[in-house]
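Record filed below.
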Amino acid sequence: MLPGFNFSGVDCNSCLRSKGHRLPFPGQFPLPSNVLEVIHMDVCGPINPATRGGNRYIFQIIDGHSRMRFTFPMKLKSDCYHHFSRFQKMAENQTGRRVKTVVSDNGGEFINKGFLKLFEEAGIIHLPTAPYTPQQNPIAERANRTLLERIRVLLLDYQVPAEWWGEACSMATYLLNRTPVSSLNFQTPISKWVAPSPPTGVDHLHPFGCTAVIHLPKERRSSKVGPTGILCMFLGNVEGHRNFCLYNPESGRILITHDFTFKDGEAFWPLYSSSLPSSSLSLPSNLSLPADLPVVSMAEVSEDVTSPGVVEALCNEGENESTEAIEVCLPQPVVEVCPPQPVVEVCLPQPVVEVCLPQPVVEMCPPQPSVPLEKPLPKGWTYKPVAETAPKDVTSAISMDNVVSGRRSRAPPNRFAGAVVGLVPCSFGEAMASSKSSAWLNAIVKEFASLEQHQVVKEVSRGKNQRLLDTTWVFREKTDAEGNVTEEKARLCVKGFRQIEDVDFHETFAPTGWLATLRFLLGYCASNNFDIQQMDVKTAFLHGDLDEEIFIQIPKGYTPTMKGEVCLKLTKSLYGLKQSPRNWYLRIKRFFTEAGFRPSAADPCFFIKTGGEPCFVFLHVDDLVIGGQNLHKFKEKIISTFEMKDLGELKYVLGMKVTRNRSMRTISLSQELYVDNLLKDFGMQDCKPASTPLVPSSRLDPIGNGDVNPAGINYRRAVGLLSYLVSCTRPDIAFAASCLAQLLNAPSIEHENAFKHVLRYLKGTKGLGITLGNVTDNSLIVAFCDADWGSNDDSRSFSGSCVFCYGLVGWKTSKQEVVALSSTEAEYRSISSFCQDISWLLELTNDFGLTLKGKLLCDNQGALSLLKNPLYQHRTRHIKLQLHWCRELFNAGNIQAEYVSTTNMMADIMTKSLPCQTHATHRVSL
């Protein structure tokens, strides 16, 4: 319009807003000079159908220098932290170098407290991509497509069902790590990763899913005229050996052997089955590559990451087991699918360098009756340990249209029937795509109705630069004492980890009831023949008053009524907020105060109403256990204030089954269902029972005999599950759990085997529990106190105690903080620790209007003398004065002290691993 006038420097806001476009991306990532300098990682999924072990995601890690790939099939995206931390330790140990830089997207699986702390402590630079910019991580993004292309080829070529994509993923990675790439001057990734490079060649490679005939040793043949071979399906190569991994459908096991004959041109699955499963592999829609993806070299084209499974580590783990634990249990599916396949997912052989296995939860267990193992396996044979548990939702992975008769029809074992439970979704999308979508949708509708009823949120126009908190859906299935699903629940939760202190929240502390308080309440009510009822507050946190001004984004599934940019303002507490538990406690405490109750000085979650008809309420978040007489008055009052669910007589609370015998005035607590689930989680449901929690007189080496952090169970999770069982109903395994809990930082195979030994003990004693009530003398609190002097490798002693008041209400096992110089000192320190507990219990019983005294039983005369008399000599003068306060309790008459022989010292079970007969005697006494 104006000749000679240059408008290139004129940028108005309207032009910038209407003509904006994405900036160009760099053409290619520079090749790092050494391994582990730059690590690329990403998550691919969800993939449908899930593997037979329930995995739906693939976590990929790629070394930028060597293009070496590592993949980890996962059930949840949150498992990334666990796999990466183990990969880091393996890679740094194998290469002698340290991870310096990590490139990933900006997803929540990578941007969380766990990863941030790991990167900070290790000095790793984390380079997250910008939102909606996968082009900044092209190597990992391209690896997704390349990996899935290889998986499709392997599955389709020999018509292997889609449920085997986990094994195909491992095989694809094994091949790609040995495929020359142009950016490495046609070297292979594995040759750049390790030195010296492994031998090359293709003679050991065979088609995935082809038929193989395994030689059957004489020891395994049924008769002289029986077959000498077994038809199996080839699943992959074992790194470091010329061994192969094959699937035997008749036994349902994965075998590793070198005695074989391959038929490369013959597909196994069509040969074995006359009707193939029709399930197809459904890949996530977000795997499409953007048109402006940067140019990537051939190294990236073949990028994918392999499921790092170290078969050697697993085999070594098996060698540390007892003879009967060599065989791996692979339960058959509940419905016969042709061919009959084990529902347990098995991790394929992978390169030895890829040590970061998917989190295994199925451990070695004794032989099954269906396939007896009377003799050790011949040389060159071994069973591959299973790395995953059975899928929780068989129906979601297997269509009923595919159920046909197999060539070898047989009844499935009943032991697997209990494992068929619903698969709880982890997100809104998963809930809507699951087989129970209608049930989850109803739960979501109920949640929205509850939010509206309690006036928790209101729509407001979003202000400029308004700070919003995001939300997520949390789904859960509520079960009864038998494990049956009674209700599907959906909770709208705020992502409270993004809250800012002193802006979005202030105080956050909220107490929860002590289990010792609950046990005392049950024993007291049982002895006095009081009623015990249970109630549940519906949407408890929504009753809490909110003082801060908080805005949240529109949650998924919610349709706003206002036009324009809308957000939600919270007018009351919502799940996920850091202050929500505290706000709820303050609200329910105010109700109890107005109703004439007072909180106990010993437990702020225990409310007491005395005078007239007594009433006691134990509060655990939103669960109420109510004991007393004429409870209907209290129930009517609380129902008029909160929306309640009346569960009637107490049957099941906090994972414990409650059995009451009114004629005997007793109440029993047990966790048989919890133990069953614990055994299933770790694949030990068919193990051989043990008579003691630990091997008698054994000690666990803190360093352990075997590899540190082996490719085995999730040790921290295992000990945590065991500790909850101890705190509720199983004092007989308290010492074993305490020993295992001291080895969390560097567990070895020895420690994992010790955990499995505890599971074997639980297998034979899963019906045990504690019985409360039926007390003849209710005037004393009786306690057994013991110590095992210098029993640990660091010379520190173990203390143990068990307290009886209307039954066994408390127990404790702990290592003393300092080294005791004598058995008298060790026992005296244990007495002092016990007196702290008995002082608390005296305070609690005082709230019931009871005037009780404590009776201490100890098997050390020197400690009793030191308690009763202020002895001062060179062997005791170093004991801190703070420990002598127990002498004040004794002198005040609050506790009595008596000697009991070691034979009758019940607390001995809390301080050491006892012989079978002694352990059983003390267990019965408890």
